[in-house]
Amino acid sequence: MGRLGFSTKESARLLLLGVFGVLILSAVLQAEQEGENLSGLSNNPDKAIFAVRENGTTCLMVEFAAKFLVPYDVLALNGIDLITEQASFTLPRNAEIEGKCGSTESEIHISWKNNAYVLRIYFSKEFREKGIEVWKISKVQFVYDTSETSHFINAYNPGKHTASTHRLSVLVTPAGRSYVCTAQQTITLISSDHQKGVTFSMYDIQIQPFDIASDFVFSSTYKCITDQREHLEEILPLILGVILGLAIVIMLTIYHFHLKLTANQPQIPRDRSMYKNM
């Protein structure tokens, strides 16, 4: 009996130590991965900067201004029909951040107004043609509460709704680089509120969810096609002006040499009467 009692106590002790170990390990793991709001570093009042850090090193960083256009129902004046209104608002700079980093999957969760709004952006890596590795946004989810009256006024049947994308593949960027785009990028999400379309727009963007080499520092940039096209449109008049200027210089140079060559040649009289004595 004594040996059995000893074994029971020992088992209980080991179990207790195991529980404490799991709790401590969980706390440590949670402490190793944290989100930081760096929006105060931006001079743009509309831009937010969020970072996810793991083991004291930045593993995901996003910098953008964002706005939402969310349709919702209100009761018409006749008290019977429903009218669709639009709530328009921006992503606040004082939002709370959570995130998760991985080698091929990562995500960031941005919440505000006591979780009345939660934006979740999911990233993934994949190999494409010729073995080129890229990362992309693979999913966007937005949770919003129409009972939050600062944006949803007189909402009919208020409550929480979730808007999500399906089979998303946007902001495709070569691995190891950050995506940069000043132009607006718009994503449409389908809401659980009667399949309404929620518009999520980002602009003045720089994002990198993988392979950040230096803490709080983006890697080399990959410009979006829209920015590349706009840059080309800006410099095209300058290029044409340079080409035209060179063409004028070349023509003037050729004309100058032509005058020098013809100046030393004997001139033949044009009046035929001058040839009578020849």
Features:
Porin, 2 domains, 278 residues, 14-stranded mixed beta sheet
Can you give a write-up of this model?
This protein has 278 residues and is an alpha+beta fold. It has two domains: 33-223, Porin (Beta Barrel); 224-258. The protein contains two helices and 14 strands; from the N terminus they run H-E-E-E-E-E-E-E-E-E-E-E-E-E-E-H. Strands 1, 2, 3, 4, 5, 6, 7, 8, 9, 10, 11, 12, 13 and 14 form a 14-stranded mixed beta sheet that branches. The radius of gyration is 33 Å and the shape is extended. The termini are far apart. The model is unreliable at 1-6, 22-31 and 230-234 (pLDDT under 50).
Explain briefly what this protein structure is.
The chain has 278 residues and is of the alpha+beta class. The chain has helices at 2-32, 225-263, and strands at residues 33-37, 48-54, 57-75, 82-90, 96-100, 105-112, 117-127, 133-145, 160-164, 170-174, 178-181, 185-191, 197-208, 221-223. The chain contains two helices and 14 strands, in the order H-E-E-E-E-E-E-E-E-E-E-E-E-E-E-H.
